[in-house]
Amino acid sequence: MSGLREKQKAIRHDRIIEAASRLFREQGYEDVKIEAIAAAAEVAIGTIYNYYRNKGDLLVAIVSLEVGEVLKQGEEVIARPPADAEEAVDALVGGYVEHSLSYLSKEMWRQAMAISTVQPSSPFGETYAALDVALARQTVTLLERLQALGRLSERADAGALGEVIFNNTNMNFTVFVKTEEMRLEALREMLRRQHGAVLAGWKIP
């Protein structure tokens, strides 16, 4: 019986996240009420409050789902990276940005960034920061893997290079979500050009 209850609980949780993500995208984060999410998910309002205290908690749960899937994709790149270091980095960070609008709109990302900035010590802010740390660590891991494979100079500081690449990706992604008309391909091209310059002199042909 406990297994069935856990399964039903997981199903309800998935319905809540799906409904919240869809309504936030369609109507805008600010305009969506918890009552509307409950109705769309076909659960009682109290059920949502069993999982989340407010809309902000729901938003960070969606961000966490997004980043979790991105990290899994990143693990596959690290396991089988392209032979060229620039292409490997492009595959990793390209996966980050290409997947970014799967569950969240640009408006939702702006809300998430704003909340994490205004409330850095809140559970939302701390979770958001931890997700950034996980992505940065994965970027470093890729460069360490490239060194181990002889595709990146051993003289390179993989930790520093990885942090620079991730921080640059994050900065440009912020510009992307702030600029409604900017397309993903423009972001990808910008990152390729900049990361190519960062890796110049360190990659091994």
Topology pattern, helix = H, strand = E: HHHHHHHHH
Number of E strands: 0
Structural class: mainly alpha
Q: Regions with pLDDT < 50 over 5+ consecutive residues?
A: none
Any chance you could write out the topology, listing elements then pairs?
Blueprint: H1 2-27, H2 34-41, H3 45-51, H4 55-79, H5 85-98, H6 106-118, H7 123-148, H8 158-178, H9 184-199
Helix pairs in contact: 1-2, 4-5, 4-6, 4-7, 5-7, 5-9, 6-7, 6-8, 7-8, 8-9
How would you characterize this protein structure?
The structure is a single chain. By secondary structure, the chain is an all-alpha fold. 76% of the residues lie in helices and 0% in strands. Helix 1 packs across helix 2. The mean pLDDT is 94.
What labels describe this entry?
single chain, 205 residues, mainly alpha, elongated
What's this entry about, in short?
The protein is an all-alpha fold and 205 residues long. Helix content is 76%, strand content 0%. The radius of gyration is 19 Å and the shape is elongated.
